[in-house]
Write a structure and sequence with these properties.
Strand content: under 5%
Number of helices: 7
Low-confidence stretches: none
Shape: globular
Number of strands: 0
Distance between the termini: 23 Å
Structural class: mainly alpha
Amino acid sequence: LFTQLKADEITAIITYVRSAPVAGVEHPRPVLESGAKDEIAKGLYRSSRDEVVRVGRVSPPNVGPSYALGRAIARATCAECHGLDLRGGLPYAGAVARPDLRIAAAYDAAQFKQLLQTGIAIGGRDVGLMGQVARGRYKHLTDNERAALLAYLHRLAEVAP
């Protein structure tokens, strides 16, 4: 998801991480149990390196240069759950299906802000994992970033329904 960040964006992330105090519980090194080893053997799980080789240059659909910021935000944040094509689906067997992000065409600016800041969807719906991600991550988007993302998703729904 982060393979297309610009140098100044990477610098900003590194600067922020270095500024944060060390905190939390120290966790033991991970151990791969039989289930994980089976997933690796079947090709269901790929290392970050292998994933970058596979999709490092893939991006969500290009809907024009005026939507570049929204597209970049979608790639760096939304694609993690909704896929690089933003069509959603099942990320792995047994998972809860993720919606196609063209659903955002149903949102106006106020509804989208509510979703991204509180995790509450249109109609007061609890959207599970999306709600948790919104409250922890998307609430930090600026008004400009949120508007760019919504404009991109609206345009995407128009040109690639």
